[in-house]
Amino acid sequence: MTWFAAIVVVSMASTIVGLFIGYQAYRGFRRHQSRAMQYLSAGLILLTAVTNTAAFVGTGLLHLGVIDAGLQSPLTLAVRLLQLAGLACIAYSLYRRP
Fold first, then answer.
1. Residue 25 burial (CB < 10 Å; 0-12/13-18/19+)?
2. How far apart are CA 72 and CA 61, in angstroms?
3. Which of the two ends of the chain, N or C, has the fewest CB atoms closer than 10 A to its terminal CB?
4. Residue 51's pLDDT band (cuts 50, 70, 90)
5. How many domains does the chain fold into?
6. pLDDT tens profile 61-88
7. Which H or E run contains 2?
8. Which helix (H) or strand (E) element contains residue 95?
9. Cα dist. 68→9, 38, 41, 72, 75 in Å?
10. Rounded to 5 degrees, what angle do the CA atoms 34, 38, 43 make?
11. Model-level pTM?
């Protein structure tokens, strides 16, 4: 197995597990109508599934030459901003008062 294949498998597994956890938090929100669970769900999905997918697709497009290598820094910034948004949602869910 090549390094690239291992990275792809681990990225896909992380995305799937993140989506599963985010979905479970969403089910908790739907069951209890808890705004905190809604933010937790959104944060987990942003932090895992969305950022992993954006990073994977962006890296693939860069390596295939579909997008210019000069866009690597803006792409990295976009992924980091998505991670920050996910963490902010999770933090808000922990400190939100009912």
1. buried
2. 10
3. C
4. very high
5. 1
6. 888 889 888 888 999 999 999 999 999 9
7. none
8. helix 72-95
9. 26, 37, 34, 8, 11
10. 145
11. 0.81
Residue 18 · residue 49 · CB < 8 Å: yes
DSSP per residue over 23-84, as a string?
Answer: HHHHHHHHHHT-HHHHHHHHHHIIIIIIHHHHHHHHHHHHHHTSS-GGGHHHHHHHHHHHHH
Tokens of 39: 């933010």
- Residue 61 token pair: 């497009």
Q: Which helix (H) or strand (E) holds 1?
A: none
Identity of residue 43: G
Structure tokens at 82: 């998505």
Residue with tokens 């956890």, as numbered in its chain: 21
Look at the block and give the residue holding tokens 């949602």. Answer: 89
Q: Record the tokens describing residue 73, joined without a space.
A: 């820094």
Question: Which domain covers residue 46, as residue numbers?
Answer: 3-95
* Residue carrying the six token digits 């705004």: 35
